[in-house]
Amino acid sequence: MGVALTHPYREFWPDADDGKAVTKEDLAYYFETVGAWMMPHIEGRPLSILRAPEGLGGQLFFQRHAEPHTDSFLKTMPLDGEAKPYFTVDSVEGLISLAQIAALELHPTNGRPGEPEVPGRLVFDLDPGPGVAFSIVTKAAHQLRDRLEVLNLVPFCKTTGGKGLHVVTPLTAPTTASSDWAMAKACAEEICARLAAEEPDLYIVNMAKKHRQHHIFLDYLRNDRMATAVAPLSPRAKPGAHVSMPLTWDQVTDDLDPKTFTLRTAPDLLGKAWADYHKAERPLDEALRRLGKLNFANG
């Protein structure tokens, strides 16, 4: 493994829906197993982590800024406007070092690797309110997929590790200065707003909880310079040790059960999900031009 672990048998999760505790060592081996897959989606980006030094039964806290004694495998990234550097990782050993400091969740920003000021992907969070069956969320993901493909974007889907789904579309490096975070956020907001206008009984773009009953909140707010989204394959700091699982679109069906994917089961279930992700980058400028011309309802 190449990284020393202290207290390797400390229990982080009571179980992974299998009656067996998940330890620090288990988390480290999980990151070692899936690390090569994860790295392209997190390396070179500012990283916020959710830590639980004593496991789920103890205190949980988010940490964004690296500490002075940061492990040699954990890198730091200075950012304009930030007094302290952020965590970042550039190796599987860095991921394992995150296990050593009890980082149960990994939340990178969505810029391009090494270029946090440049949008690298759009992330749409489909967050169901009370009374919305998960089968409705899967249908919503396909509906959003159709909208994005009209804009010549290539969407991918993953579970959040909770009750929702993320739809993610990678972006090429911009050829003009116009493709900044303000434009990325405006594009995502407009896509969501149009979808909500077409089906107001199902979708909302207002995050107020009083409006959430029987609706799916189309959260476009991940698309900002320092906004984050849970990384693909990141575990979640919740009972069951579920992970944010990358999916093929064929898996996004009415009977999809996000609880299937845990820290123990995910490596063997990964298959060919997101296999063409890094060949699927598309320009935001073109999507914006098409968005200005098209009415979704008319195709």
TrEMBL record:
- Which stretches make up the DNA ligase D polymerase domain? 23-272
What is the protein's name according to its record? DNA polymerase LigD, polymerase domain protein
InterPro entries in alphabetical order: LigD_pol_dom, NHEJ_LigD
Give the PANTHER family listed for this entry.
BIFUNCTIONAL NON-HOMOLOGOUS END JOINING PROTEIN LIGD (PTHR42705:SF2)
Domain of life from the UniProt record: Bacteria
Source organism per UniProt? Beijerinckia indica subsp. indica (strain ATCC 9039 / DSM 1715 / NCIMB 8712)
Entry-linked Pfam families: LigD_Prim-Pol (PF21686)
Q: Which residues form a coiled coil?
A: none
